[in-house]
Amino acid sequence: MRFRILFSFLLLSIFNHLNAFAQQKLKTENVILITLDGLRWRELFTGADADLIRDKDYVDDRDALKTLYWDEDPQVRRQKLLPFIWSTLATQGQLYGNRHHQNLVNLRNQHRFSYPGYNEILTGFADDERINSNDKNDNPNRTVLEFINEQKGFRKKVAAFGSWDVFPFIINAKRSGLPVNAGFASVEGPQLTDREKFLNQLQTQIPSPWGSVRLDAFTHHYALEYLKKNSPRVMYIAYGETDDFAHDGHYDAYLKSAHQTDAFIKDLWTWLQRSPRYKNKTTLLITTDHGRGNGNGSWRNHGANVAEADQTWFMVMGPDTPAFGEMKQPQQHYTNQLAKTLAAFLGINYMADRPVGEVINGVIPTQTISANK
């Protein structure tokens, strides 16, 4: 009996030693999650849609838009639309969701609109019964951001910035205590930088076309300033314009917003790679909250009754992710896998009060995931 106890103790010690050694090999110390609200996989992987560019109901100046983003070759089109993603992330990271190659990413939730989509991304599971509207109700589910913030070494090192004013409720800022700047909220605090003061002033002077979503430039620059000043280990940046321009039927603005967001991500990555705190220690995880329809009219919409609204995508780039580029083999992944994957990059085994999606195979060595404290 004593021998069995000693042997079990020895095995446990060896396992803990090997696990600690594996964790030391993980290079990621920080993760930045980025979402582009309602950006279709079609534009991501094939660029501008010819039928929509030709439609005068959706485009004011078709010739000008074609000059910016059109080419007969879909690979050239996507490069023109999203140059940073296809020049840098596609060569240094991994992209999933090109359904032309049967590389599939889908939602698990049945509602296929924003709040349920963001809940699925951030919690790792669909909650169709309780998360069934975009109303400003505090999320009863604990997100992976809140979970990470409770782990040793991460307290007060997690923050979120979003263009949509519902994010404080999705993340449940009141319960979690996480700093969430979203909608038209100004940055507050006793030691604001000159840039933050300017952004606060400018935000009140430039009207947004929408009552609940601010322009993404404010979200981007607020987030970047927070990075410079506070050095968080986990940040969530949620851009929102693409979905609202699509709902409005402005395909030209939808494309231009996607192009500008690509430039924002380049700006962010460039700064990260110049910072000793983040260079070669940071992983980007980029995705969308839902898909949208295809074809005249339906491209503007999403929801339970809209075909393709459950079709999403994601991409990963960082020091621990092999540079496989665009994934072209048939696979099936789900949005609910992102929360556990995000935590895994930090060596954390994320768990919730119900089953969550598994870590995405191939983007991270799974042996680096530790048990929670």
UniProtKB/TrEMBL annotation:
The keyword Nucleotide-binding does not apply. It holds the Pfam family Sulfatase. Residues 242-347 form the Sulfatase N-terminal domain. The keyword Signal applies. It comes from the Bacteria. Gene3D superfamilies: Alkaline Phosphatase, subunit A (3.40.720.10). Residues 1-22 form the signal peptide. Keywords: Signal. This is Sulfatase N-terminal domain-containing protein.
